[in-house]
Structures are given as structure tokens and as C-alpha cells.
TrEMBL record:
Residues 31-275 form the Xylose isomerase-like TIM barrel domain. Its cofactor is Zn(2+). InterPro entries: AP_endonuc_2, AP_endonuc_F2_Zn_BS, Xyl_isomerase-like_sf, Xyl_isomerase-like_TIM-brl. Keywords: DNA damage, DNA repair, Endonuclease, Hydrolase, Metal-binding, Nuclease, Zinc. It comes from Paenibacillus aquistagni. The keyword Nuclease applies. One of its GO terms (molecular function) is zinc ion binding. It comes from the Bacteria. One of its GO terms (biological process) is base-excision repair. This is Endonuclease IV. Belongs to the AP endonuclease 2 family. The keyword Nuclease applies.
Length: 293
């Protein structure tokens, strides 16, 4: 029987201040054994430059380090890596500046990385989309020398169809000028609704693990977005369900999360918190599923 130290947590709200989010994380560590968190570094709905307090970030970094809590930030939803520079030069520059500020804030908080969605296209030309993502990454990574990495997240399928398959993520990483500055975030809900993780089929989870290993994906996964789903496999619809209440079977989750490849990865819930307990029922379910009470 494999034993593990579980690393789980959730997305925490800032309510305007990093300190609020980190104090909440400390409370959840005490109450629920949380050891990793995610928060928005900037305003999630804007790529404009963000006013932030370096002093507050330094206080948070200290608190998190002392508590041994691993931190990740999530980039603004509107940040799109697949901007075609000659069509939208100003938007491209604004996006690059926003991504750079995301990295600077993540570093100031002591975060391991910034989760960034793979990229969105409104046209049909996927190859152009990949090229545009590479242009953006090659604009930022050569001039970024901090320790936070860009963590590309697999998508549900509603973004012009990009960023679903392992090979898209691993090839972008390989083709980028500085692959060492890129890692991955694996979202279980997105993997299921996109059709990548065939959790309902016999052998579907084993196949997912094997395929990820063949593409060299798992070693670069720095965190898991542990979301269940309300939507059917292959629907490409991104609606998270609380862990254990959606349609992905608990047996499939268990097989995935106890695999050699995912055993020690931090697991972040991105589901709606309920009441003052937030996610207590989900973590309870997770601990009992993975035999750690
Ligand atoms: Zn996610």
C-alpha cells in the first residue's frame, strides 16, 4: 500500500489584500490541514497594470514560508497567450506586461508559479495559435529571471479547441526558448470534459497516465486543480462540481491520485466554498478516499 503525505488546499479569496488571503490559509492549515493555496495575483478580470503592496507581499511570503504552505497564483482570466502580434500589437504588449507583472507578484509572494490558461483563438488556425503562444512566451521568458514559473493549464475545449491534449502542452514547452521556466497545471475537470481523461471507461485512467508519461508531461506538473464536474465527458463545458458530488467516479479519482505520477502533487480545489467551513466536506471526502484520516 502506498503511503503519502497529502498536500491539499483551495483557491483563497483576497478581499482586496494578500494578507487577508494568507491569514485565511493559516486558519485552514490549523483547522483542516491545508498545505497549499492558490490566489489571484492581480484583478482576475483585467490585464491592466495592478496596484499592489510589495510590503504586504513580503509579509505574506514570510508567513507562508514559516507555516510551510506552498503558494500558487492564478493569472487573470482575460490574459490570453494566443494574441497575434501584428494584428493586435498594443494588446500583445499589454498582455506581455500583464504576464510579467503576474510573475513579479508571484515571486514577491514566494509562489512557485503562476497558472496561465493555454490560450484562446477565435479563428480556425490552430498552428497560428501555437505560434502566437510561443511568440508571447519567447517575449517574456528571456527577460524573466525570478523563480516563479509559468504553469500552463490544460483547457476544457471552449477556447477554439486549444490546450486539451498532452502533446500541445509539452510541445509548446519544448519549443519555447526557455522550457525550464515553464511547468504545467493539470485540471481534472477540464481533462474529463475535454475528452482527454476517459474516466468512465475501463482502463481509461491507466491510459491517461500512460499517455501523459509517454509525452513527458507528468514530471513538469507542479499542481493539480482538483475539480469534479457537472458536465458530461466530451461536452467541453467547464462547470466545476465540488469534489465527490460531480459525475467523475471516486474510483477513477482514487486511481489517478494514488498513481506514482501524481502521488505527491499539491491538489487545489477551485470549487465554490460553502459557509464558514468552506471546503471541509470535500477535504474530508478526499482524506477518506485516499485512506488518510
Ligand atoms: Zn483550473
Amino acid at each position: 500500500m502506498k503511503t503519502r503525505q497529502l498536500h491539499y488546499g483551495c483557491h483563497v479569496k483576497k478581499h482586496g489584500s494578500f494578507i487577508h488571503a494568507v491569514d485565511e490559509a493559516l486558519r485552514l492549515q490549523e483547522a483542516e490541514g491545508v498545505s497549499c493555496i492558490q490566489l489571484f495575483g492581480k484583478n482576475p478580470r483585467s490585464i491592466e497594470q495592478h496596484q499592489w503592496s510589495q510590503r504586504d507581499a513580503a509579509i505574506c511570503k514570510d508567513k507562508l514560508q514559516q507555516a510551510g504552505i506552498r503558494c500558487f497564483t492564478h493569472s487573470a482570466y482575460v490574459l490570453n497567450l494566443a494574441i497575434h502580434v501584428s494584428d493586435q500589437p498594443e494588446w500583445f504588449q499589454k498582455t506581455a506586461a500583464s504576464l510579467m507583472q503576474e510573475l513579479i507578484i508571484a515571486d514577491a509572494l514566494g509562489a512557485q508559479g503562476v497558472v496561465v490558461h493555454f490560450g484562446t483563438i477565435k479563428h480556425q488556425n490552430k498552428l497560428q495559435g501555437y505560434q502566437d503562444i510561443l511568440t508571447m512566451l519567447n517575449t517574456i521568458t528571456p527577460v524573466w529571471n525570478g523563480s516563479a514559473r509559468i504553469l500552463l493549464e490544460n483547457q476544457a475545449g471552449m477556447h477554439g479547441g486549444l490546450g486539451i491534449m498532452f502533446e500541445e502542452l509539452t510541445n509548446i514547452r519544448k519549443l519555447c526558448m526557455h522550457p525550464e521556466k515553464i511547468g504545467f497545471c493539470f485540471d481534472t475537470c477540464h481533462a474529463y470534459v475535454s475528452g482527454l481523461w476517459r474516466a468512465d471507461e475501463a482502463g481509461g485512467t491507466a491510459e491517461l497516465l500512460k499517455s501523459g508519461a509517454e509525452h513527458g508531461f507528468w514530471p513538469h506538473v507542479e499542481l493539480i486543480h482538483l475539480n469534479d464536474t457537472l458536465e458530461a465527458a466530451g461536452s467541453k463545458k467547464d462547470r466545476h462540481a465540488r469534489f465527490g458530488t460531480g459525475i467523475i467516479s471516486q474510483a477513477a479519482f482514487k486511481e489517478l491520485l494514488t498513481s506514482e505520477e501524481l502521488l505527491h502533487k499539491p491538489m487545489i480545489l477551485e470549487t465554490e466554498p460553502i459557509g464558514p467551513q468552506l471546503h471541509a466536506d470535500e477535504w474530508e471526502q478526499l482524506r477518506s478516499l485516499l485512506n488518510e484520516k
